[in-house]
Amino acid sequence: MKTWLKIILLSALTVGISAYSLHTISSDCHRVSAPLQQLEQALLAADWEQADRLYAEAEQLWQQPQRIWPLLIDHEDSHDIEISFVDLETALQLRDADAARQELAALLYHIDHVYRHERISWQNVL
User: For 62-98, what is each residue's pLDDT tens digit?
Assistant: First the structure.
């Protein structure tokens, strides 16, 4: 009986930690993506001041979960996001709208990839 209780408790703990991790990743990805979605509109309107402000907001939001994300996600995914932020910043500094939109698309892809990669699905299980 004690063995079954330990197995049930360990299983419940594992599911709980997994659910917390997925919730944390999901909310962080959505929070960072929100200003980036607005950044796309600022780029289309050639509003560089607004674009710079939104970029700074998104980068600050990205830095906040960096304490826990290394425990939850693959280092390569985190590295890809960091590189995309640097490339986007460079394009914004050069005031190159086409390059900025391209780098923004890559950044949004990498952020979405983290969520898709970490969520529980048959593709990730099999």
Answer: 888 666 666 667 778 888 999 999 999 999 999 999 9
The domain locations on the chain are 2-125
Q: What is the CATH number of domain 2-125?
A: 1.20.120.290
Contacts of 55 (CB under 8 A, 6+ apart): 35, 39, 88, 89, 92
pLDDT (tens digit, 9 = 90+) per residue, 103-126?
A: 999 999 999 888 787 766 555 555
Measured distance CA(55)–CA(60) in Å, rounded: 9
Angle between helices 48-63 and 75-94 (to 10 degrees): 160
The reported pTM is: 0.81
